[in-house]
Design brief:
elongated; binds adenosine-5'-triphosphate; 35% helix; 4-stranded antiparallel sheet; Alpha-Beta Plaits
Length: 329
């Protein structure tokens, strides 16, 4: 549905997008993830036909964005980061106007507007002035706008930016449902957004592709980080026992883990070397044995892994980190 090949965009000397390649297949909901300034908006604006590219090739629904720009744009519903809306128009009136601009025939217009309002969950404010709507509703009017010509492909730039947690949940629900009828590419710098709505993720940083794959593939990049230990008894004895375990470099009490019960401690140990599954299992056994020998009551000992946030931070940290092999899957 979307094929981006070696896309480059320069603003003067500044290279905003630097040789990015990825595909989005029909029916997928793909998250386009990256920190601020990574080049997400630039890429999406090029896809939507709002911005020219410097080099590379972009094909949307079989149409080259440069040589068949009109046909390509017909297939895309684009929701920009800041949705420009006419404050003094009513929602249904505005959407009918937008449908006309998008060349929806007069006969089909009312039906298209009703459907878009239902899908974006703004049908209850059809006759309200846009200027009187809350930010969450306005964002969803922007979504209805992207939907009104019934494009097979939706490109959404940070659809939940600036919303409160309730509004974020509502917009996410709407997006999840859209995946049933549309191919969706949405950008965000929030990892949990991708976890909530997307089947696959494309990660960019500083204009370069740093990873692409399913959420499970991203999960697999989580590295062993150490051990989590919960015990009751003498704190110093517990720390000493865990410090003696093979492979452990550092042990601290997790002060944030509050226990109502007197004498209960949560310790976090980190590996000082690369460990495999066997070494981790042995370390768990050793930690339990050492703690019991030291007279502590053991409540929990388990291996921990780096969080997805840490994976994301690692992926996007390296300025010159090469794109992964097979990353454009
Ligand atoms: P954000 O999440 O902050 O919107 P982004 O990933 O969407 O970030 P872009 O807006 O695409 O990033 O910007 C990529 C880079 O290009 C940034 O360094 C930005 O400052 C630069 N840039 C964007 N638009 C222009 C422009 N019109 N002229 C010059 N530089 C620009």
């Amino acid at each position: 549905m979307i094929s981006v090949q070696k896309l480059v965009k320069r603003y003067g000397k500044k290279v905003a997008v630097d040789g990015v390649s990825f595909d989005v297949d029909r029916g997928e909901v793909v998250g386009f993830l990256g920190p601020n300034g990574a080049g997400k908006s630039t890429t999406l604006r090029i896809l939507a036909g709002f911005l020219g590219l410097s080099s590379g090739k972009v094909v949307v629904a079989g149409h080259d964005i440069q040589s068949e720009s009109f046909e390509a744009r017909q297939k895309i519903g684009y929701m920009p980061e800041a949705v420009p809306l006419y404050q003094e128009m009513r929602v249904a009136e505005y959407l009918a106007f937008r449908a006309e601009l998008k060349r929806v025939s007069r006969r089909d217009r009312a039906g298209h507007v009703d459907d878009a309002m239902a899908k974006a969950k703004v049908d209850d404010v059809a006759n309200v002035l846009i200027g009187h709507l809350s930010k969450g509703y306005r964002q969803r009017v922007g979504l209805a706008d992207a939907l009104v010509a019934r494009p097979p492909l939706l490109v959404l730039d940070e659809p939940t930016a600036g919303l409160d947690p309730n509004q974020i949940r509502e917009v996410r629900d709407v997006i999840k449902n859209l995946g049933k009828d549309h191919t969706v590419l949405l950008s965000t710098h929030i990892l949990s957004e991708v976890e909530a709505s997307c089947s696959r993720v494309v990660v960019i940083a500083k204009g370069k592709l740093v990873a692409a794959g399913t959420m499970e593939e991203l999960e697999r990049k989580r590295r062993p980080s150490g051990l989590l230990v919960v015990v009751r008894g003498a704190r110093e004895a517990a720390l000493t026992a865990v410090r003696g375990v093979e492979g452990i470099a550092k042990v601290d009490e997790d002060a944030a883990a509050a226990h109502r019960e007197e004498g209960v401690h949560t310790l976090r140990a980190t590996w000082g070397k690369k460990v495999d599954d066997v070494a981790i299992a042995r370390a768990v056994e050793d930690a339990v044995a050492a703690l019991v020998r030291a007279g502590l009551y053991v409540r929990e000992v388990r291996a921990t892994r780096s969080s997805l946030e840490e994976v994301f931070a690692e992926l996007t940290a390296g300025e010159r980190r090469a794109a992964e092999p097979g990353a454009s899957a």
